[in-house]
Amino acid sequence: MEKKEYDLIIVGSGPGALSCAMYATRAGFSVLTLDRGMPGGQMAMTEWVDNYPGFPEGISGQELTERMLKHAQRFGAEQAYGNVAKIEDRGEDCFFNVHTDSGEVLKSSMVVIATGAQPRSLGLEGEKRLNGRGVSYCAICDGNFFKGKTVAVIGGGDAAVEEATYLSNIVDKVVLVHRRDELRASQVAQDVMTARENIEIAWNSQIENVLGDEKVEGIRIRNTKTDEKKVIDCEGVFFYVGIVPITEFVKDLVELDAQGFIVTNENMETSVCGIYAIGDVRRPMYRQIGTAVSDGIVAALNMDVAMHKKPPRVG
Ligand code: NAP
To answer: What are the catalytic residues?
Structure first.
């Protein structure tokens, strides 16, 4: 990092964070985005983005990330690696110390929390034991290990259905295991998936465990209607059973709801003056790249209004 003091530090670097950084630097703020991983968050791990406006043919998540990053950098936004351990309210009017787990302390007038969410684990014994040995939460990262093999995908939401479709291009066969008899995913995602001949759906099926000694050899499922149990032989299991917000490091600072999401108002302001939250880390109605981008822009415009004492534009 070039400096130790910024107008704005954004924790995270997904689409909301990068849009916020772009708007805020363009408005004259010095901005640093800090991320403990690669830029782009979940967007960068999405094989193909089909519904982001302006890209009629679709665009890879990786390329969209690179474009958003370049756009923020063009106005002067800085990026750095950093795992934020604590945000300290300095008790003055909106000034914060941002502590990383390597002991670095950065000062900022405002902070945006854009840490997003991580895949939810079901906590099954075999899921934990065989994590990284056939159990995965990221098809784009690990799909290639299963070329020509059978994999199971757990879940019935957009992520499960889209990633099952992605995996069907690589593996021999995908078995989608869903606990109900209808999918939660959008109809368009379902239609694409059901057209694939090598995807089979195990309806009304709850995964009970992941089986195998050194690596995944199968999963045990239970039919939720009949209670019948059976084993599906597979070499990989991809869990897409929802997401949990990454808010542990701010749980004693800002107000969270019962599920751990950050509570904000429509301006993305949290319960602490000067701290904003955007994207999947708060509880929005929809979780899309476009809605995260919108959150980031709203937060940046509000900071601009607050810091430069401009009247908000109406109409
Ligand atoms: P999600 O929509 O919450 O779906 C989670 C799935 O996991 C549901 O089908 C749920 O079953 C199942 N599930 C939850 N707990 C389970 C358990 N204990 N045992 C078995 N199954 C369980 O999560 P997501 O698919 O990760 O998506 C997260 C958000 O991102 C959503 O808002 C989604 O729309 C959005 N997203 C959008 C896109 C896109 O637009 N292209 C792509 C990916 C994600 P039930 O259905 O029975 O509850």
So the answer is: 138, 141-142
